[in-house]
Amino acid sequence: IKWTEGRGWHDAELVPYAPLSIDPANMTLHYAQTIFEGLKAYRQPDGTVATFRPEANAARFQASARRMAMPELPSELFIEACDALIKQDRAWVPDSGEASLYLRPFMFASEVGLGVRPANEFLFIVIASPAGAYFPGGVKPVSVWLSEDYVRAVKGGTGAAKTGGNYAASLVAQAQAASHGCDQVVWLDAVEHRWIEEMGGMNLYFVYGDRIVTPELTGSLLPGITRDSLLTIARDLGYTAEEGRITTEDWKRDNENGTLTEVFACGTAAVITPVGSVKSERANWTQGDGEPGQVTMRLRKALLELQTGHSADTHGWMHPLG
Ligand code: PMP
Description:
Helices cover about 25% and strands about 30% of the residues. The chain contains seven helices and 17 strands. GO terms for molecular function: branched-chain-amino-acid transaminase activity.
C-alpha cells in the first residue's frame, strides 16, 4: 500500500514476491525512516488459521510511526493486509505444533531526495515466511551478556519504537556478546548501566517463586506483545505478575540467595526462552541450575496452547481467518 502526502493511503495490491527496485537517493537508504512488526499465524486444530493479537501489532506500528514522523496506517488496513497475504499463502502455514507462518509488515520512506526531513511518500509492505519451531531439539537455555559498553536506547530516543536504527545500533554489542561466548545481549539503562531493560529481540521476566516481574516500560525498551500477554496469562494461572525495576546486582544477589528462581526472555520468535547463564566484564554466573525452570515451561506451554488453539481463547486474542 502506498502513502503520498495530500492523498493518504492508496493503491493496495497483492503481488508475487519480487525484488524492489530502489533509487540510490531513496531517503530510507540515507536517513533510515523505517519501521516494522513481527507476528505469527498458527494452524488451528480444525485446520483453520489464526493470528495472535494482530490489533496489538497494528497499535504498536502506529506508535512507531508517530515516533518516526511517518503516517499512521489504520488498524483495519494493517490487519486486512496481513489477512490477505495469509489467505494467499495459506498452504505455507505449517500444519501443527510450534511451527507458524511468520509475517513481517514494514514501512519505509519511498521518496527520492537528499535533504534531511520527514519524507512525503511511503510504502507499506507485508512479507511472510514459514518458521519452524524455535527449539527443534527441545527448549535450550540461552547465555546472556550484560552490555556495559553500549546502550540500545536513551530517554527521549527511539527505544520504544520498532525502527531499524535500533537494531543497527545493537549489532556491535551482539558481536561483543558472541565474542564472549554468549547467545544474546541484555541491555541496561543508559544512565547508570545497572537497571535491566531487555534482550536484543525479547523482553525479560524474573521469577521469584510464584511471583514474576518484568522491567517496567521506561520509554527506552520495546513494549513486547508477548510480555504484555504473559502478565495476564500468569495471573490466570494464579501467579502474581507485575512490572518492576531490577538491577544487575539484584539479579546476581537474588540468584545466589535462591529467591530469584528462574529468568526467561519472551518474544514472538522464540515465544519463551529460559536464561541459563549470565556474563559481564565483572561477573559470570549460572542462573539457578542452568536448566529450564518449571514456571518458565508452564507459561511457555500455556501461551503456545492458546496460540495453536489447544486452549480456550478467554481474552479474545486470536484473530481467526477461517
Ligand atoms: N524487544 C525487542 C527489541 C524486540 O525486537 C522484540 C521483538 N519484536 C521484543 C522485545 C518482543 O516483542 P514481541 O513480544 O512483540 O515480539
